[in-house]
Amino acid sequence: MITLTESAGQEPKSLLEKKGASGRSGLRLGVERGGCAGFQYALQVSEKTEGDEVIEQDGARVFLTADSLEHLRGAQLDYSDDLTNSGFKVFNPNAARSCGCGTSFQTKKEGLEPSHDPSLDSTSCC
């Protein structure tokens, strides 16, 4: 299960209102293969599908896709409204390394340390 910061709990409600989404909709968070580090986060507005884990906080609803749960256990979803870097941020203890922009990550493998990949140290990626 993941946790939401206070700002991450408030933002989905605002986003759903702006998009005119139904009362059954929420923010769907998943992990898919891709990005410059191997996996990337996928966020979208949608309704719950079978197998989703549901997190409700302060009236906000976040759906975690069933096939992403192992990559998201213990993660924290935050929302930042900075001028240069606003949006949802995932702080994921299962990520061994993230790319410079933070949307792509490499998973930890039990008993193994990931090898160093200098391209992931960059601030321009994805």
Structure in words:
The protein is mainly β and 126 residues long. It is built from 2 helices and 9 strands, in the order E-H-E-E-E-E-H-E-E-E-E. The strands form 2 sheets. The chain has a 6-stranded mixed beta sheet with strand order 4-5-2-3-9-8. The chain has a 3-stranded mixed beta sheet with strand order 1-6-7. Strand 4 and strand 5 form a beta hairpin. It is globular and about 40 Å long. The two termini are 27 Å apart. The C terminus is likely disordered.
Brief description of this entry?
The longest helix is centred in the first third of the chain and has 14 residues, at 6-19. It is built from two helices and nine strands, in the order E-H-E-E-E-E-H-E-E-E-E.
List keywords for this structure.
126 residues, mainly beta, Hypothetical Protein Aq_1857, Chain: A, globular
SSE inventory with pairings:
Layout: E1 3-4, H1 6-19, E2 25-34, E3 38-47, E4 53-57, E5 60-64, H2 69-72, E6 76-80, E7 87-91, E8 95-98, E9 104-107
Parallel strand pairs: 1-6, 2-5
Antiparallel strand pairs: 2-3, 3-9, 4-5, 6-7, 8-9
Span of the ends, CA to CA? 27 Å
Relative strand content: 35-45%
Major sheet characteristics: 6 strands, mixed
Based on CA inertia axes, which overall geometry fits?
A: globular
Can you give the helix content as a percent range?
10-25%
Which structural class should the secondary elements be placed in? mainly beta
Annotated CATH architecture: Sandwich
In terms of per-residue confidence, which ranges show pLDDT below 50 for 5 or more consecutive residues? 110-124
Question: What Rg is obtained from the alpha carbons, in whole angstroms?
Answer: 15 Å
Largest beta sheet: what is the strand line-up?
4-5-2-3-9-8
- What's the number of structural domains? 1
> What is the C-level CATH assignment?
Mainly Beta
- What is the CATH T-level topology? Hypothetical Protein Aq_1857, Chain: A
The CATH homologous superfamily name equals HesB-like domain
Order of helices and strands: EHEEEEHEEEE
**Tally of DSSP β-strands:** 9
